[in-house]
Amino acid sequence: ARVAEEFGVEYLGVAGIEEAIELREYGIKIPIVILSPVFDFDIEDIIYYNVIPTVSDIDFAKNLNDYLNKMSKSIDIFIEVDTGMGRTGFLYDVAYGKIETIKNQFTNLRIKSIFSHFSTAEDEEDDFALTQINQFKELKRKLIQSGLTDAKFHISNSAGMVRFNDPEMAIVRPGILAYGLYTSENMKKYIDVQPIMSVYSRISRIANLNKGDSVSYGRRILDRNLKVATINIGYGDGFPHCLSDKGYVAIKGKKSKIIGNVCMDLTMVDISGIDNIRVGDIVTIINGEITADDLAKQCNTINYEIITRIGERVSRIYYENGKPIKVRTIASRKIHNKL
Asked: Is the pTM for the entire model greater than 0.85?
């Protein structure tokens, strides 16, 4: 968020009020938009922390407007339109009327932006994204004719901004691209990005186990003698349980297979054949050797889930020009100078 602010990003988008509050308490000053629906009980925090809510419910819009009216205040809002995602936003068929109601009746709400969201932008064989674009542009035309000339319109997520880059849209909303990852394999021909995130752990125990010994919950019985290392990461940290007995980590540049079930806080791996290993050695979970895409394929999921599941108790170390500059831990819940 701090880097985005320094590079002149116009808005930061978050999922909920809690993330918005966290950014404000870190000192982030630029506008923050909550892109998911919010509730009446969020109104007080929205106003106090100067956060932009997304409106997709007319009752919420009225309640927000009434609250602001009592305080003699007004705030900026975004409005979402559902052009086919089937998730949130005013349904396309009624969106024009709902937006007109907000514009004309709820005068304490300033409509800064209207947006929609692609459902198939990365799929080149599905032209539904074009249908969404055409619907959204038609809505934009009607709203501008009705006098809504200052609002910014946007629809593009990561795949949409790469494939379409429509000059009529004033904002783009990169998500997975901000991590330096692709939405799908075919996106690689449009843009070259590099992952920005690596995940590491350390070895906390090394043991020589014999054939017939057992490992982890469910007693994975060894069919041969193995040297087994315990590493301090588990599904409680976001390391997927679906990697049990089939996934890999990397130690000293060599792949090490997971043995038995991934535990909540610990995971056991086979280090037989890897020399000069000691307790405290670094273990690569995600990096160039093992990517988020690799883990996603093994778990039959998507890279988005792999990276966003990395939990708060995993310390974040921030680098600039290859050098560590700051660390954030669960104990502090804030960024502070430490390195």
From this structure: yes
